[in-house]
Structures are given as structure tokens and as C-alpha cells.
Give the backbone structure.
Amino acid sequence: MSKVSLYYKNVSAEVVGQEHGISQSQFAELAERVKPAIAAVNKRREQGKTPYRDLPYNKDYPTSVKQVASDIEGEYENFVVLGIGGSALGNIAVQSALNPYMYNIDSAQREKRPRLFVFDNVDPAQLASFLDWVGDRLEETIFNVISKSGRTAETASQFMTIRQLLIDKLGEDACKEHIIATTDAKEGTMRKIADDAGYRTLVVPDGVGGRFSVLSPVGLLSAAVCGIDIDGLLEGAGLMDKRVCGDDMFSNPAAMNAAVNWHYYNRGKPISVMMPYAYALKDFADWYRQLWAESLGKTVDVDGNEVFVGPTPVKALGTTDQHSQVQLYREGPNDKLFTFLQVEDFGSEINIGPAPDCAPELGYLDGAKMSKLINSEKAATEYALLHDKRPCLTVMFDKLDAVSVGEFIYLYEVTTSIAGELFKINTYNQPAVELGKEATFALMEREGYEELAKKIVPITKIDTDFLV
Ligand code: PA5
């Protein structure tokens, strides 16, 4: 019995009506429409063009990750990831999903494992605060710099700052013991630096884009070091793989998910809200935002036509955002598809305390299970949205463990691949991100970018005539 499934009844016309729901005949049309997309995704895999698909079965990556994790076991109090985008979001999401909320704070909950910090920004106040704290703890801190290219300004600048700090405080020789580089096997700036300095290295697999890399050493090392069952993650992904290859949409959750999303995008609902009802899954909504946005937001289709396509992924959190977003979601424009993430067994339970005598109106909560409350709130929010004809999907987890998280990751990766075929775009590139990277080089006065700087400065320099 699989642990993760997709519930789609609440997008049907039967539930949300003909105008906003999917009728039987539209489901049948979608099932036909998605077949060639599934075939194309399967073919791409057979041709070796989507190597992320085979990560669940690769033995070398988990072996090398476990080797590094065991080499450093018990040696460090802090494990710090330096990376951004696909080199950070999966690490954060897996950690939040599978380790306790107080993991970093409570050594008992950590069970002798290091704290995990992930820096995916270049905010000087944020990093300075960390550097102040870590300055006297460098002996007990190890850094995992993750960058396929090594030329990403954010990761490079963090790395350069930390490297100098390590050299200054611990010396050149010790510095190299405190850095693990996860990067391209052969090429790139970080590979050159790592080989030159003699850092321990792990590989970012060839052809696996950052946003599809969480099940490679990119995401597996921090997970393994923090005690997460990486074999379970890969097992879950493998289990999901068996369910997302077949051409019958009604038994292929990735195909159903992609088809429903594509259908709504083309029918006035270009916004796709992911709303976990489990705090532990909140960072997976961030991971999903990148996967969906970078993969599906494209100017041109595969034939070179301008299409300016792409659903807008939005992150929300149940129950928190019931008190922030649901007013808009119910009464604002009906332009969204909602996907809830729901967990049956939270692994922990709280029986709510008794009501004070003066507040008998709170008696209904007295002794109730908190898991019942959160899942009732999910059902209640869904009911309210359906009442207003807002279509809803739910990804159901019977419990949160490494296997179900691996299933979820793979489900969404393949959903994205199939959706990319339906939208007829290149799912695996991100040309629009590159221009921003190059503009940063120009503004930071990197040699060779002078001409670009001349174009940027007149547009971005503050013109006080326009300041109110
Ligand atoms: O998904 C992607 O490809 C991007 O988000 C990259 O992961 C991100 O830009 C970081 O790139 P790099 O690993 O080269 O530093």
C-alpha cells in the first residue's frame, strides 16, 4: 500500500459545477491528451536526457554520501550548507519534513548529530549574525558548499567569506578539513577550487538540473549527516517511479496532477496554490515553487513560438493562512487551483488541555486530539472553498517518513516533466535566471561585463524625480 496518493474528486464538475469543474468527458479528453506527454517523458528518460529519473536506483551516490557522512560523524556540532536555488531548497525541505521542529535547538532531539544551517542568500545582516555566533565555534563546524558551476555570485561570496575566516582562525591545512564541495565531476570554478585546495568532494550529477537534484548528493549529504534515512528517500522515489510511467492517467498520479493543472491553466486559473496542512511540509511548498516556476515559466515553446506560458505557484500554509489568505481565496477571483498536502499520522499527538471553568464555550476542544483539529480545519477550509466553486486537489500522506517524502519528491518532479510536455516547452532550462546572474556580474564590475553595465545603470540608478 503506497503512502502518498493524489485525491482529485474535488476538481470534478460533480463537486464544483460545470463552469469550474472537470466533467467526465473532459477527464476522458485529458486522459487522451496526456498519453503522448507521458510517452515523450518516458522516451526522454530512455534516451538518457533526464537522468534525475534514475537517481532512485543509483548506488554510487548514496555510497559516496554515506562515506563522507561517516567520515565526519561525531566530529562536528554544526553542518552549514552554502548554496542557492536547487542547491538549497531541497536540503531545507527534507530537513524540515523529517527532523523535529526543535532539532537545531535541542541536543537531545538531535541525538548527537550536528545542527543544520542553510544559507541561500547574501544578506549581510543575516550572515554577519551567523558569523558572530560561529566565529568561536569553527573547530566544531563544517561547511558544505554546493554549486554545480561555482560561479553563482551568492554561493561564491559566502564561500569566499567562510574560507578566509577558516584560514584566518584555523590555518590553511585545517581549513580544507572544514569544507566539503558538492560540484560538477570535472568542470567549473568550484571543481577547480576544490581540486586545487584538496577539499573532500561529492558530485552534482551531469544533466541533473538544480531543481531536480535533491535525491543526488546535493540533497542527500545534509540529510544523511542529520540522521535522515536516505535509503528510505530513494526507496520512496523508486516506489513512485513504478506509478508514474504508465499511460493511464487514472492510475498515474503524476499524469493526473499535470493534466489537471494544465487544464485549469488554460481555463482561467493560472495560479496554483500549494497549501500543506503540516508545518513539516511548509518548506516543500518552497521547493515546489522553484520546481514549477523555473521549469514551466517560459517565453517560447519547443517550436520557437512566443507563448509566455507558466502557471504561478503560490505557497500557503494551513492553518496559518486561513487567517491571512482564505478570504481572498474564497471571495476573490476564481483563478486558482488549490493543492492541499494532508498527513494522516503526524507521529506525535497532543490532547488539548481542559477549558477554564469561565469559558465553557471552549469545551468542545477539551481533550480533543490536535491532529483531529488540524485535519478538520483542512476539511473545513476545503469545504468552504468548494462551496465557492474553487477546485481542490489533495496529496495525502498516510504518515511523514523518508519513504513518503521520497515518493512526494518524485511525484512532483515527474508531474513537472509531464506538465512541461503538455505546455510544449523546455522544462529543463532557465534562461531568464541567467540574465539576472549576468547583470549582477555587470553591476559588481566584473571584467568583461562593461557593455552590459552601461545598459543596466541608466535603468536601475535611482532617478530622484520619481521618488515620492
Ligand atoms: O535549479 C537550478 O538550476 C538553479 O536554481 C541552480 O540550482 C542555482 O542557480 C544554483 O546554481 P549553481 O549550482 O551552479 O550554483
User: Anything to note?
Assistant: Residues 84-87, 147-149, 152, 155, 209-211, 294, 430 surround 5-phosphoarabinonic acid (CB under 6 Å). The longest strand covers residues 336-345. Residues 138 and 166 are 7 Å apart (CA to CA). The two ends are 61 Å apart (CA to CA).
